[in-house]
Design a protein that fits this description.
heterodimer, A: alpha+beta, PmbA/TldD fold, 2 domains, 6-stranded antiparallel β-sheet, 6-stranded mixed β-sheet, 21 strands, B: alpha+beta, 7-stranded mixed β-sheet, 9 helices, 24 strands
Amino acid sequence: MENILSQAKRVAEEAEVFMVSAEETPVQFEANRLKHIQSKQSCYIALRIIKQGRVGYAITTRLDDRQTLVDAAVETAAFGTEAKFELPSLTSYPLVRIFDPDVESVPTEEMIDLGKQLIATVREYNQDIMCEAGVSRDIISTRIINSRGGKLDYKQTIFSLGIEGQLICGTDMLFVGESKSSCHPITDIKPITEVVLRQLELASRQAQLTTKPLPVIFTPNGVASALITPLMAAFNGKVVLQGASPIGDKLGQSIFDKKLYLSDNPTLDYCPESSPGDDEGTPSQRTPLIEQGTIANFIYDLQTAALANTRSTGNGSRSSGGVPAPSPSAFIIEPSNTTFKEMVSDIKEGLVVEYLMGAEQGNILSGDFSGNVLLGYKIENGEIVGRVKNTMLSGNIYRLLKQITAIGSDAKWAGNAIYTPSIYCPQVSVATK
Amino acid sequence: MVNITDIGHQLAEILDSYHVDYIEAHLEESWSNHITYRGREPESIGKTTSAGGNVRAMVNGGWGFTSFNSLENLSHRVELAVKQAQLASKGSGEKSNLAPVAPITNTVLRGKNNNPTTLPLAPKKQLLDEYNTIIWGIPKIQTSVIGYGDGHKRTIFLNSQGSYIEQDRSDITLRVAAVATEGNEVQQAGFSVGSTGDFRAITGLHQKVAEMAKLAVTLLSAPRVKGGKYTVVLDPVLAGVFTHEAFGHLSEADFVYENKQLQEIMTLGRSFGSQELNIIDSGLIPNLRGSYKYDDEGVPAAKNYLIREGKLVGRLHSRETAARMGEKPTGNARAINYRHPPIVRMTNTYIEPQDTSFEDLIGDIKYGIYAKNWYGGTTSMEMFTFSSGEAYMIRQGKIAEPIRPITLTGNVFTTLKNIEAIGNDLEMNQGGGCGKGGQSPLPVSNGSPHIRIRHCLVGGE
């Protein structure tokens, strides 16, 4: 890496070398049985240079070919974006714990056992169910060095466990599932199987809703699948800078319900999306985005922050393989004190949404969403009475989140990047066949 | 620098020295460029080079798989894959097996002339600049998003049954989108095109770009449709996505081969639609992004009828799913790159044209929706949802006012039966990519003539 940096410094004003190497071991179960054991070694280097004020960028997995990498970065710099930012010099980073040596030493046999237990527990409840399960152990090293003396070096472990079940009766299909990740080894399958068994129980009967606006409770998974994608776009500093975010000019304004608090937080210990710094070497920080319903901040990388006359929030991400761009780390919605049970008992006729399919394919920027309730339940007189089918939910997240009846006390991780409680909205359009 | 051709032959010798059920290896070298715009200026321009490979082994019906970037010490990687396969075989009840195919030794190289990654960046950026300038020339446009990518790769496939296949492929994709705003309204429009390496496929689109940007502005004042059931006419792009999403994925045998209940639904001979309905997946059509000579298990690509005259007649297989179901491999085992094992994927999937003209298709619709262009789509096998990029009301047999793009949802089985007319104007869409099992976007194409579906559930307030 140091060689690439010095080679690049000879042809450019500034340079930054970013390297990720990973060893991943996924164990996969299909059709209720162990199918694959895999081992994936990968490593790539990204070189970003600033030459005559412009950004050049190249990536390679060929660690034996430095010259091609440097040449490619120089070639692209001729057409690159004008660099408005300064690479971070040597700085200190917050202490964020994301490495547990115990993950490295989990034997593959033990991972196989965990997968078998998951499937066995779910099939004990219903033996017709077909399960896919996955157990994975990943060790990832990240290093960044740059021409201003900046340096970040960290190692992360991730252990993941998940199951998806499919129950078919005639041409009727039911999908259930849950997963969990941590930087620690996961040894207890119960938090996962409990969720799946409850889904199966609630879905064991079917119920019919009427086509009209109804009160809707989005569970944590429901919130993640229906409401979060538009928010992630709207708070993205780049979208704001282009004027394409509907909340871009509303900093400091109260446009959401006062009960709503949202932050981006990559500093939580042992969470898979956490890290001491972002992919440009900016130290990680907790960034409040919505405080008591008011827009508090947007998220930025170095270049976008410079263009917007502000500072990077440590959200420079290379997830798309291109140059760093703003991207959320982990969206945290603060829980409140209403229990899920209290929400349900408040509703005469309504819907619980556990998974909405296709919501992210609508007009994300406007906040409009429309999707099929792949897993959801009807509420009748304060009780969940069964699973709904052929049901479509439509709305606009800005209108929905402006008036929330209650925010739940049941916050949990829905995927690695979203931590949220249930959200109870008084009125959402429901169409059904 | 390590060269995959040299390593290929060394690796063949290593594979020979193992006596297990089956071992295969893939080696790959690739080159790619991307140019993206977000707003007036380029956001990211970059070049990527990559090399790597994988080894997949089967021992007593259990699979092991290793992938790697480092091309050194490959005998260690082979050893690891075999060990993992041994471990996997102990933990599983039923055993995997492979349908027999004849070993193939062949080199299929299209050569340097077909490699878009070696063209200089200047003309590529010039073209995108022209398109971007057109978008910005339209009033009320807030921003533009352009994504251009090209790639070229050389692959070597070899297995313990004597196959040794060297292939190359090139790919170009372009996505252009415009965002228009007015007051609190934000609307967008876009389109995608692609080719198997011919840069001309993405040139000369200036008028199309202008129309797209104007559409984004038009949508600002377009009304939303009321949710409910409609007769909907889909254009070839959207009907192609429907075919791929709603039916194509169901015909991938890895969904059904170990699932008795699904097999009952997907029994060959079962009626899925009218006599007019024929659905085909063919990897053999020249110059389509889903085409290839051999799949990633060394099986020749084929033209496979999935639905013929309304009845299910075939499905897409890997060697493993074919063996399990007692059917023939169809050449549909594909991996997006060396980091993944091959899984069952589509190639170019389409509805065969019939003889109804577009005018006749909409002529007797008193009140319906004409949905065009693709925005997105997903399926859960039984249920699907997909979104149009633009939409119009149909009134008294004529295309009427534009409305906001719509989201369609429904049950696959009923919806296929509800296709009540198939047009005569087949078009293949080269702009798509398919995602499955964490492997996305895989180059595929899909297509259809205009089709008319009754009782379609459309989302809306």
